[in-house]
Automatic annotation (TrEMBL):
Keywords: Carbohydrate metabolism, Cellulose degradation, Glycoprotein, Glycosidase, Hydrolase, Polysaccharide degradation, Signal. Residues 1-19 form the signal peptide. One of its GO terms (biological process) is cellulose catabolic process. It comes from Bispora sp. MEY-1. It catalyses: Endohydrolysis of (1->4)-beta-D-glucosidic linkages in cellulose, lichenin and cereal beta-D-glucans. It comes from the Eukaryota. This is Glucanase. InterPro entries: ConA-like_dom_sf (IPR013320), Glyco_hydro_7 (IPR001722), Glyco_hydro_7_sf (IPR037019). Belongs to the glycosyl hydrolase 7 (cellulase C) family. One of its GO terms (molecular function) is cellulase activity. The gene is bgl7A. Its EC number is 3.2.1.-.
Length: 426
C-alpha cells in the first residue's frame, strides 16, 4: 500500500511539473508476478499489466470532452497539430475489472464481453507486461532462451483468439515531450500488420501512418485450433510507414510462417476431446524455445521449438509430414518452402535480431467481424465451420468467453519447466 501511494504521488508531481498529458484519474496497474529462470532456479518478479492507451479515455482537459471522435479517430478541432493536441489532451486512468482484466498472483484472465447494467459490452482487452518499476515495459530478450506459460482455453469457442505474443515496442512506449504518459498508460503499440491507429507513441496520428514492428506470436488459439507464428519486419524496432511501404509486401511480413498442427495435417493433436493429445478442456503448459545455430545468445536464430505439459507429463509437439520427412518445429527450410513474405522481410535472421534486442509481452483476447478468424480454425486450418466465428454468434451463445494465462516464466533453455514422461525434444 505504501508503494502504491508513493507511485501516485510521483505521477502527480510529474503532471504538474512537466505536462498536461496525464489526467486526474490515477492509473493503478494490476499486479501479475512473473519469473525469470537459470539453471540455479527461478526468481519471482513483481511485474504488472497496463491496458493499451486506446482503452484509456483521452480527454480535453478544458472541457472534459473526448479528444477522439465517435469512430475512434482524433478530433482535429481539439487536435489541429500534434503540439496543440498534446497541450489539450490528457490520458486518464482506468478500472481494469471494467475492461475485463482480472489478475490474481501469477494469473490473468481476460474477457471479451462484460454485462454492464444489463447490456452486453465488448471490451476485448489488450494488455502489456510492465517491469517492476511500473513505468516502462518489461523487455524480454529470448534469443537462445525459452518462455513457458500455462493457458486455459476451455472457454474460447470457434472464432475466438486468446493470444500471448511479443512485439518490438519501445520500452518507454515512445515517451517524449508530446507523450509524457508513455508505457505507464500503455502507449507505443506496434505489430507486423502495420495498422494506422489514432495515436502513435502517444502522439496524434494526423498523417494516418502505420505503426510497424516485428512480431512473434507465441500463442494464438481457442479450444479448437492453435498457431505459433513469427512475423519478421525488415526494419529494426519501431517503424512508421506510409502508403505502399505499409502494403502487403512492404516493411513487414503480415502473413507469417505459421505452425498449426491441424493445418499441417494432424487432426487429433489439439482439441476438446479426451482422444486429442492435448485436451483443451483442461489447462496445459506451453514451452517455446528460440535456438541459435551456435548455441549462444548472439548467434543466428535457427529453430523455433515447442513442447507442451499436461497432467504433469511432457508432450512432444505434433509431428507433421514435410519435405518427405517429419517436422515438429519451425525451421528456416520450412519457412523458405512455405512463407515467401517472411523470407522477403529477412526471415529467421531478422526475427532473431528482434528477439536479441528484446520485445514486449502482450496478452489479448479478440474476435474478428470481417473474416471470423477462419485463418486460425476453419477450412484447412481447423474443424470450425466458416460462420461459427461470427462475433454476433459468439456474443449470443458464449458471452462469458475468456482466456486465462498463468505461471509465466522465461530464461535459459530447459529451466522453465519440469515434467515426467517420454515426451520431449527430438
Ligand atoms: C472536468 O472534470 C473534473 C473532475 O470530475 C471537474 O472537477 C471539472 O469541473 C470538469 N470540468 C468541466 C469543464 O466540466
Ligand atoms: C470535436 O470537438 C469539438 C470541441 O469539443 C466538438 O464540438 C465536435 O463536435 C467534435 N467533433 C467530433 C467529430 O467529435
Ligand atoms: C523492406 O523495407 C523497405 C522500406 O524500408 C521497403 O521499401 C521494401 O520493399 C521492404 N521489403 C523488402 C523485401 O526489402
Ligand atoms: C521428395 O520425394 C519426391 C518423390 O520421391 C522427390 O521428387 C522430391 O525431390 C523429394 N523432395 C525433397 C525435398 O527431397
Ligand atoms: C456452422 O455451425 C453453426 C453452429 O454449430 C451452425 O448453426 C451453422 O449452421 C453451421 N454453418 C454451416 C455453413 O455449416
Amino acid at each position: 500500500m505504501a508503494v502504491f501511494t508513493l507511485t501516485v504521488a510521483i505521477i502527480t508531481i510529474i503532471r504538474f511539473a512537466s505536462s498536461q498529458q496525464i489526467g486526474r484519474i490515477p492509473e493503478v496497474h494490476p499486479r501479475l508476478t512473473t519469473q525469470t529462470c537459470t539453471k540455479h532456479g527461478c526468481t519471482t518478479q513483481q511485474t504488472s499489466l497496463v491496458l493499451d492507451a486506446l482503452s484509456h479515455p483521452i480527454d480535453d482537459i478544458h472541457t472534459n470532452e473526448s479528444c477522439e471522435t465517435s469512430s475512434g479517430g482524433v478530433n482535429t478541432t481539439i487536435c489541429p497539430t500534434v503540439e496543440v493536441c498534446a497541450e489539450n489532451c490528457a490520458l486518464e486512468g482506468v478500472n481494469y475489472a471494467s475492461h475485463g482484466v482480472y489478475t490474481n498472483g501469477d494469473s490473468v484472465t481476460l474477457r471479451q464481453y462484460l454485462n454492464i447494467d444489463g447490456t452486453e459490452e465488448e471490451v476485448s482487452p489488450r494488455v502489456y507486461l510492465l517491469d517492476p518499476s511500473g513505468r516502462d515495459y518489461e523487455i524480454l530478450k529470448l534469443l537462445n532462451q525459452e518462455i513457458s506459460f500455462t493457458v486455459d482455453v476451455s472457454n474460447l469457442p470457434c472464432g475466438m483468439n486468446g493470444a500471448l505474443y511479443l512485439t518490438s515496442m519501445d520500452a518507454s512506449g515512445g515517451r517524449s515531450q508530446l507523450n509524457p504518459a508513455g508505457a505507464t498508460y500503455g502507449t507505443g503499440y506496434c505489430d507486423a500488420q502495420c495498422n494506422a491507429p489514432a495515436w502513435i507513441n502517444g502522439v496524434a496520428n494526423l498523417k494516418g501512418l502505420g505503426a510497424c514492428c516485428s512480431e512473434m506470436d507465441l500463442w494464438e488459439a481457442n479450444s479448437e485450433a492453435t498457431q505459433l507464428t513469427p512475423h519478421a519486419c525488415n526494419v529494426t524496432g519501431f517503424y512508421e510507414c506510409s502508403g505502399a511501404a505499409c502494403g502487403s509486401n512492404g516493411v513487414c511480413d503480415k502473413d507469417g510462417c505459421g505452425f498449426n498442427p491441424y493445418g499441417l495435417g494432424d487432426h487429433s493433436f489439439y482439441g476438446p476431446s479426451v482422444t486429442d493429445t492435448i485436451d483443451t478442456k483442461k489447462p496445459f503448459t506451453v514451452v517455446t524455445q528460440f535456438l541459435t545455430s551456435d548455441g549462444t545468445s548472439t548467434g543466428t536464430l535457427s529453430q523455433i521449438r515447442r513442447l507442451y505439459l499436461q497432467n504433469g507429463k511432457v508432450i512432444q509437439n505434433a509431428k507433421v509430414d514435410f519435405d518427405n520427412s517429419t517436422l515438429d518445429s519451425i525451421t528456416p527450410a520450412y519457412c523458405e518452402a512455405t512463407a515467401a513474405t517472411f523470407e522477403a522481410e529477412g526471415g529467421f535472421p531478422q526475427m532473431g535480431k528482434a528477439l536479441e534486442m528484446g520485445m514486449v509481452l502482450i496478452f489479448s483476447i479478440w474476435n474478428d467481424p470481417s473474416a471470423f478468424m477462419n485463418w486460425l480454425d476453419s477450412g484447412t486450418a481447423g474443424p470450425c465451420n466458416s460462420t461459427q466465428g461470427n462475433p454476433a454468434l459468439i456474443e449470443a451463445e458464449n458471452p462469458g468467453t475468456s482466456v486465462t494465462f498463468s505461471n509465466i516464466k522465461w530464461g535459459d533453455i530447459g529451466t522453465t519447466y519440469s515434467g515426467s514422461g517420454s515426451g520431449g525434444w527430438n
